[in-house]
Amino acid sequence: MPALTADSSSSVQLPPGFIVQLTGPLLIGHLFNWGLYGCLVVQCYIYYLAFPKDTLLPKSLVGFALTLETLQTVLSTRDAFRNFGSGWGDFKDLDTVGWLWFSVPVIGSLISFTAQNFFAWRIWILSRQLYFPILIALISTTQCIFGLWVGISAHIVGFFSQFQNHSFNQTSVWLGGTALCDIIITFCMIYYLSRERNGFRSTNVLIARVIRVTVETGLICAAFAILDLSFFLKWRDNNYHLAPSIALSKLYSNSLLVVLNSRVRIVGGRVMTEPLDVTASVSFSTGTSAGNLQSRMSFRPGDEVLTTQNEYGPEEISLNDHNTDRALLTEVDYNRKEVGLV
What is the reported pLDDT for 100? Predict the structure, then answer.
């Protein structure tokens, strides 16, 4: 797109098809950005209701992501109003970067850096090996630095028509590093989670669900980063690359919340909840006996009866029978390795 000046903006006549190439991607990007922000708010609310006892780390990540994404949405909406409202018809205003230098590359780099290092930490939890987590952290840090560089360069240049030629290499490293990091994370999570399968059906179902979520979120983020990079490399005279770029950070924030909320179990829903197989030390007391035993228990969230199998045979312990004291579960060993969920 040719650079437009204040003197020429009122006289330049651009073909309608070329105007669509400038305004269309912006409109799609802003609409997509708002839609994903709504999804993020709902996911944060679900997380707030479901996991009040989570440690400080995941709570801080959720708060950090929601705060930055709210700021990003406000700034990008301000630019959308300038492009399609107050500055409508002004080609120089359409070519102006505005606050997109901060809301897209800067905030996007920080959000992707946070999400990718969270997944690197989960991979370390699963494997107890530092090779891939360190590699992911290095690539993530590199793409974050180049993303900040791209944002500062866009702010200095100030115009889209000049920015693409001015920061071509930096943008390529930023988006390419983001996609590479996501691909490594996806394959590492699939590999290490697959190794954790065991004889417990509930554990295998949980692992299968986590693998599915990992593939869906990781590959979607990588696909959009590659799409953004491809548009940027292929078309330098229009705004095609801004359609996926404006909402790219929202994909990472939502992927983070999807993983955290994948622990939610819907009791009584259309999909039957798999029973949990656990080994537990149960301290119990009734009107006639008391003691300790090692039991294998099977129950679903919301059940009122625990079905146990111990050395004395099968036995049911009611959790709502007021004629007996409640079973006191003093120690529960799920007999499964932590699958990386907080």
Answer: 87
